[in-house]
Design brief:
Layout: H1 2-44, H2 46-49, H3 53-68, H4 75-82, H5 93-106, H6 114-129, H7 137-154, H8 157-167, E1 169-170, H9 178-194, H10 212-246, H11 250-267, H12 278-285, H13 293-307, H14 314-332, H15 336-352, H16 356-366, H17 371-383, E2 395-396
Parallel strand pairs: 1-2
């Protein structure tokens, strides 16, 4: 009797996972489609919008402080729920993080979008989990929702699944959530695609011959990408702490930093480093970036997120890794598109302290032809990041 109850519970979780995937896919499509429109508007009217980033930041922080409640914690609240520290993720988190991210991008902040997607899915999944008396359903469906949110926006369902499984605790894969997360991720990706959200892809051709020289170059590349992700995480945490100490009023802090970012963004090639960084990714894969692009994107993203703007860090990490890859390719005599793609995945993996997700995202976006190179470089980057992560509440597995 107990066996059949477990079977029934698992089938029920798969049904709920499908519903979570549908909901996350729909909301991701709305969020992502408007974000694309906002990016086009900012590019067209850069001089009319970017100087007012500081004012937009004040509106974001004031709104969250006045009406956001616990949702003001953002991504940290998802991690708290995943670790059992908090048992509530209010639904108001979704509109607050979406509108905050839209404002950040409209006025030229350098931020991502994955944080929004994961919070959307996590909120939906956790809400479902609290309503059913199934063993560990809250955590299982939270992870399921995180996978669905990521997959609905990026349309990389397998990478999204493993990102959700491994990101909460370093070195631990939450296999109990594997099947529901996979179902939700594929459902969300299908729904968002059906509704018109396009997937970014760039298929690489493996036209290089393996050699010991190539292996030594991949070793150098992997180490440098790992150090880059580590530096990004370290700088982000230190900048948040330093700014919070020097400018204690969060409204004043985001106004001063936001206004400075806006003016610097216009000075640095009229907003080239504003927004997601997808412009740099496209240029990197065509080998046309400047050698300093990855440094400035790195700095603008750290400043934007540490000031209190919303969105996330993953897409800027993609662009930092890709543009740095072009620089390394020119120095090491390797195809620029290949090394840009390796940087795209490896810097993301290093900064988030995840291993399987970046390897798979490399395969889902760039094709299977260069999978061995993604495996080698992402493992090296993961090994060199020193267990630092952009997520301060990510747990480390204890070795007994």
């Amino acid at each position: 009797m107990n066996y059949w109850k477990k079977v029934k519970d698992k089938l029920f979780l798969l049904l709920i996972a499908t519903l979570i995937g549908i909901a996350a896919g729909c909301i991701d499509t709305l969020f992502g489609s408007i974000l694309i429109l906002i990016t086009d508007i900012r590019s067209t009217y850069a001089y009319l919008l970017i100087p007012f980033l500081g004012i937009a930041g004040v509106i974001i922080v004031w709104g969250c402080q006045s009406f956001g409640g616990k949702s003001n914690k953002g991504m940290s609240l998802i991690f708290e729920a995943g670790h059992g520290i908090s048992d509530e993720i209010p639904f108001r988190l979704i509109p607050f993080v979406i509108t905050g991210t839209w404002l950040t991008h409209l006025f030229g902040g350098s931020a991502g979008r994955e944080g929004v997607a994961v919070q959307i899915g996590g909120t939906i999944g956790h809400a479902f989990g609290k309503r059913f008396h199934i063993a560990n359903s809250e955590k299982i469906l939270l992870i399921t929702g995180m996978a669905a949110g990521f997959a609905g926006l990026f349309r990389t369902p397998i990478a999204a699944t493993f990102f959700a499984l491994e990101v909460l605790t370093i070195g631990v894969l939450e296999y109990t959530a594997l099947l529901p997360a996979l179902i939700a991720a594929f459902t969300a990706s299908y729904i968002s695609g059906l509704l018109g959200l396009e997937k970014f892809s760039f298929i690489l051709t493996n036209d290089i011959t393996f050699s010991w020289t190539l292996l030594s170059k991949l070793l150098i590349i992997g180490i440098l990408f790992g150090i880059t992700g580590r530096l990004f995480s370290m700088c982000l945490h230190k900048a948040k702490s330093w700014f919070a100490h020097k400018i204690r009023n969060p409204l004043l802090r985001i106004f001063i930093i936001g206004t400075s970012i806006g003016l610097l963004s216009l000075f640095c090639f009229e907003g080239r480093y504003s927004g997601l960084g997808t412009n740099l990714i496209s240029m990197s894969l065509n080998g046309t970036v400047y050698s300093w692009d990855f440094i400035l994107k790195f700095l603008f993203t750290v400043l934007t997120i540490s000031a209190g703007f919303q969105g996330g860090e993953v897409t800027p990490l993609f662009s930092i890794g890709a543009s740095f890859g072009v620089v390394l390719a020119s120095l090491l005599g390797l195809p620029s598109a290949l090394v840009a793609a390796l940087g795209y995945a490896a810097v993301f993996g290093s900064a988030t302290n995840t291993l399987i997700a970046p390897i798979i995202i490399g395969a889902e976006i760039f094709g299977l032809g260069c999978l061995p190179y993604f495996i080698a470089v992402c493992i090296l980057a993961y090994a060199c990041n020193g267990n630092l992560s952009i997520y301060p509440l990510q747990k480390k597995k204890s070795i007994e």
